[in-house]
Amino acid sequence: MAIDSDLLKKFSEAHGISGHEDEVRALVAQELSGYGEFSADGSGCLFCTSGDSGPRVMLAAHMDEIGFLVQNITAGGFLQLVGIGGWWPHTLLSQRVLVRTRSGRRIQGVIGSRPPHFLPEGQRNTVMAMDALFVDVGAESAEQVKNEFGIRLGDPVVPDAAFSHLENPFRVMGKAFDNRAGLSVMVEAFKTLCREGHPNTLIAAATVQEEVGTRGARTAGAAMKPDCVIVLEAPPADDTPGFSSGDSQGALGGGVQIRLFDPTAITNPRLAALAEEVAVKASIPFQLTVRRSGGTDAGALHLSGKGVPCIVLGIPTRYIHAHNGVLDLRDYRAATELTVALARGLNREAVESLTQYLPGKEHS
Q: Could you give the CA distance from residue 56 to residue 343 in angstroms, rounded to a whole number?
């Protein structure tokens, strides 16, 4: 399967924090046009459905990225921020950002703070709190920010980071791979399944507000009533200095992650076994993963309705929740291939077998 890094670049560079996913949603609609019937829920999740028979199999990926909202504009024209999603303040100082105004204009700025030269010695080596940071957009006053630049309170802010290929031809760098990488995989897999055929009612679900508590996944489950869900994600890699290489479960180039557990969802064991079996049969490289922390849309989706078997397939990504992530396109391709192969195998008999819990009908 060829790797379409142009699609990943397009999604990565889109502007779309939690609750402000409009630009990303429009790209998803554009990419999936002609592949199925569109619908949406009241939270802003977008669905594209192909087929009307067989089990309702959902491919889910969240559209939102972490970012900021403009919380205040000072008299001197600096922007104060409120964080949206899980930021690590270590990563923020001196980084460039883009503010999107209500007219769609993008205003560039840089994150600053009080210089260390003016801090007491005891504060110079401590991490600056979010409320001590600000954005300098080059303005001379609050009036200029509002009247000339068009920036208002509540405008969304994202990292200013271009997608790029690294010297290693398989490695790319960019912002918001969590979860634009998963979203790209979802789109590519859905298109492939629609072109080549599938045994189910297939639903591509682009969800909202995952980074602030899997909010869109809750409404998506209620709206679409899936029988089985494959969640596509870009979880943190664990192959950098500071980790034991022998214990790595998310190494770049090691293949797609099959998540068995995190604190928000225990993967249906039968579905996990099926994913592993499919991967082995198709010679798709994979890494089994058990996580002590974190969570995904599966945490909400597996509790929807009467309970739904869910599995998370991930593209390991270094430095998520920061300005520049790094991933391996071979893992991206493996995630796409496994999504296609697994969804293709989820016919009615396979899906029903995942939840046969009555005595005498258990999975053998």
A: 11
